From TrEMBL:
The keyword Transcription does not apply. Residues 39-60 are annotated as: Disordered. Residues 49-381, 482-734 form the ABC transporter domain. One of its GO terms (molecular function) is ATP binding. It is found in: Membrane. It holds the Pfam family ABC_tran. PROSITE patterns: ABC_TRANSPORTER_1 (PS00211), ABC_TRANSPORTER_2 (PS50893). This is ABC transporter domain-containing protein. The lineage of its organism: Eukaryota, Fungi, Dikarya, Ascomycota, Pezizomycotina. Residues 49-59 have a biased composition (Basic residues).
Length: 736
């Protein structure tokens, strides 16, 4: 069993804002450094790090962010983007756990994380598995829970006939508060030095003395407590009780329960499911419950890490609309990560880019950022090309003047060459100022440390590693790859019908998209297509030479389990074993490389330590190595960043076999199945869609189906038609 990595976070703000008593939806942290170290590394380096542990810990760990500036304005909805493995989830966790000292301790931060683990107390990221769904959501607000706990504790003390019970209660509460203040004071003293460190150590001594005094009062014998102390402490307990009652009345618990039910309905929980125990839910429904728990809190900062992963399209559209409404009615700052381009585009007002260990910001949504990126790349690229031609001409002129000047001993020529060389050295570079205006030497190049203009840096594309699929094996004779005729399915005769009268024919090169809400029968249909289920009625026919590649919803989880069972298993050794040595090591390495798993990642990194995105690539390599004619992909984008989704869309677009794609990702269905180039999001140049088919006269059969109530209906207007029907439903839900 491997230990969880340790996150080390430092910043300039450690000296100033640690003990800020005011919660704030705004975060402004400069000089942020985030390093991840494993317990194994720490243990190995323990003898070496004696005396200077902090600096050595940084050196032995992996630095994800270096000298970054984390800046979030109150009430703004941000989208955090960056390639898989750059540290997005680590940054979000460091914020949520207040590991970044510059974040004020009282700031309320709620987080939805990608994964969930069960701890020894039987809870899963704050969800008590023994509580009902509604109880768990209502009990998710820690500040309200603490107020309820204290109110209940004090109320019971006043209900007894013992006059000393309120005294003991208020002294116990004081002791708990003193312990919390001591913890913060210790943290503050460890991080400060100089004059501020002296004051921090004085504060620490004060906190230690306070804790000691509260401990003495708590341990005081009943006979030793005088009447005056009883009266004072009882009065303080009564005032705290009244304050807590007023605080909870302001929260309007009835309204909170109504809002909780509304959120649960929006996320797909029917009324009867509200009373189910959390422990009986599947992993996907627990994540929905966790999402509801985060949304109900209305914190200062809300962090959502892939919130759409376990939602169907109705849930995604509902969440889009809910967060858009929240922007107008709340001051909550939102920072979210999502591979769903349409979702990020609809929800986010500004974009945070994590790249090259730095944080950069763009005011506008994702589509505007990508458009601006392309324009900057074109503009600066042209500027650099023009300047390179100018420099080449000037350098040729300098060489000629130097040659003539030395030959004829002409000082004017030599001075002219020297002047031009200085211009090449100091005056060439970026021709625009930081504000976007024309560069002026006397304004933009002041200070002894600035002697030349900045180099022109042309932005490069921030895309995931490219992916390519092997061509499908040729069929010896023509015919449909798979056909469904009058398919009906029900598990037992007296149980409801899951699928009714399903008809579909798929030929080589066809593109089929299957959409629908959770529980509509999509998974059952896929299991019939892959031969895992036999239909109750109807006929399934497959080509006698058909090779099928199937990516299931749980393919990544299966690889993770395999990695835990076999710690030494790598992507290379796994694929070598599964290909039965029909491919040599070079061919397997080439296949893994074409899927984006190059070199050491394929041969040295254990499967158990691969990221979610890398496991998706490995799972795809497992199904395409035999060059199948039909790919069936069920929710393949769940663990990918949107750059990799773009690469996958390009790879699938040029695949010469047939594809059946089950997905809630509107971008992927539009691009792969409908063959449309998205106007908001630029696709790779290698993308092959409708335009290429028209030119080459190789039109494919393309169809989007929606499974609803056991029936499968073709959508003449594709994804847009289905999305619009869901938008109408969501608008009705939000107005109730």
């Amino acid at each position: 069993m491997t230990s969880a990595p340790t996150i080390l976070a430092t910043c300039k703000q450690t000296r100033f804002h640690l003990l800020d008593d005011n919660p704030s939806p705004e975060i402004d942290v400069e000089g942020l450094v985030i390093t991840v170290t494993s317990a194994h590394d720490s243990a190995e380096d323990a003898p070496k790090t004696k005396g200077k542990g902090k600096s050595k810990a940084k050196a032995t760990g992996r630095e994800l962010i270096s000298d970054g500036h984390l800046r979030l304005k109150g009430g703004i909805h941000y989208g955090l983007i960056g390639r898989n493995g750059t540290g997005k989830s680590t940054l979000l966790r460091a914020m949520a756990e207040k590991l970044i000292p510059g974040i004020p301790h009282p700031t309320r931060i709620a987080i939805l994380q990608q994964t969930q683990d069960q701890d020894e107390s039987g809870s899963s990221y704050g969800l008590n598995l023994e509580k009902t769904v509604l109880e768990s959501v209502l009990g998710s607000d820690e500040s309200r829970n603490e107020a309820v706990r204290l109110l209940d504790f004090l109320s019971k003390c006043f209900d007894t006939e013992d006059p000393l019970m309120p005294v003991r209660a208020i002294r116990k509460i004081r002791h708990e508060q003193a312990r919390k203040k001591l913890f913060l004071a210790q943290k503050n003293a460890n991080l400060k030095s100089g004059a501020r460190g002296l004051q921090a150590r004085k504060d620490l001594k004060t906190a230690e003395a306070k804790l000691e005094s509260t401990q003495e009062l708590l341990a005081e014998e009943p006979d030793a407590i005088d009447a005056e102390a009883v009266q004072t402490d009882t009065q303080e307990a009564a005032e705290m009780l009244q304050s807590l009652q007023a605080q909870l009345e302001d929260l309007k618990l009835a309204d909170i329960e109504k809002e909780a039910r509304r959120i649960l309905l929006g996320l797909g929980f029917k009324e009867e499911a509200h009373q189910r125990k959390v422990g009986t839910l599947s992993g996907g429904w627990r994540m929905r419950c966790m999402l509801a728990s985060v949304l109900i809190q209305k914190p200062d900062v809300m962090i959502l890490d892939e919130p759409t992963n376990f939602l169907d399209l109705l849930g995604v559209v509902w969440l889009e609309n809910y967060l858009q409404q929240l922007r107008e009615t709340s001051e909550t700052t939102i920072l979210l990560v999502s591979h769903d381009r349409d979702f990020v585009n609809a929800v986010c007002e500004e974009i945070v880019i994590l790249r090259d260990q730095k944080l950069n910001y763009f005011r506008g949504n994702l589509a505007a950022y990508e458009q601006d990126h392309e324009e900057q790349k074109l503009y600066l690229g042209r500027m650099k090309e023009a300047q390179e031609r100018q420099i080449a001409h000037m350098e040729a002129s300098i060489r000629e003047n130097m040659k003539i000047g030395k030959k004829t001993n002409d000082e004017n020529k030599l001075r002219q060459a020297k002047s031009r060389q200085k211009k090449v050295d100091d005056r060439m570079g970026l021709q625009v100022s930081a504000n976007g205006g024309r560069f002026k030497v006397n304004r933009d190049l002041v200070g002894y440390h600035l002697t030349a203009r900045a180099e022109i840096e042309v932005p490069t594309d921030e895309r995931g590693a490219t992916m390519s699929l092997p061509d499908a094996t040729e069929l010896r004779f023509p015919g449909p790859l798979v056909s469904l005729e009058g398919i009906k399915f029900q598990y037992k005769r007296n149980e409801p019908v899951i699928l009714e009268d399903i008809n579909m024919v798929v030929h080589i090169g066809d593109r089929v998209g299957i959409m629908g809400l959770n529980g509509s029968g999509k998974t059952t249909l896929i299991r019939i297509l892959t031969g895992q289920l036999i239909p109750s009625k109807g006929k399934v026919t497959t080509h006698s030479r058909l090779k099928m590649g199937y990516y299931g919803q749980h393919s990544v989880e299966e690889l993770q389990e395999r990695g835990r069972e076999e710690p030494g298993l790598t992507a290379l050794s796994l694929l070598m074993a599964e290909t039965d040595e029909s491919l040599n090591e070079g061919a397997v390495r080439g296949l893994l490389s074409s899927m984006g798993l190059q070199g050491r990642i394929a041969s040295d990194v254990p499967v158990g330590k691969l990221s979610g995105g890398q496991l998706v690539r490995l799972a795809l390599a497992r199904i395409v190595w035999s060059a199948p004619q039909l790919l069936i992909l069920d929710e393949v984008t769940t663990h990918l960043d949107f750059h990799t989704v773009t690469a996958l869309a390009t790879a699938l677009s040029s695949f010469n076999g047939a594809i059946i794609l089950v997905s809630h990702d509107r971008f992927l269905i539009r691009s792969v199945v409908e063959g449309k180039r998205d106007t908001d999001h630029k696709l790779d140049d290698d993308f092959e869609g409708l335009e290429e088919e028209t030119e080459e006269s190789t039109a494919r059969s393309r169809a989007v189906y929606v499974v609803k109530a056991g029936n499968m209906n073709k959508q003449p207007n594709g994804v847009e038609q289905f999305e619009q029907s869901l938008v109408k439903r969501v608008q009705k839900m939000l107005t109730k």
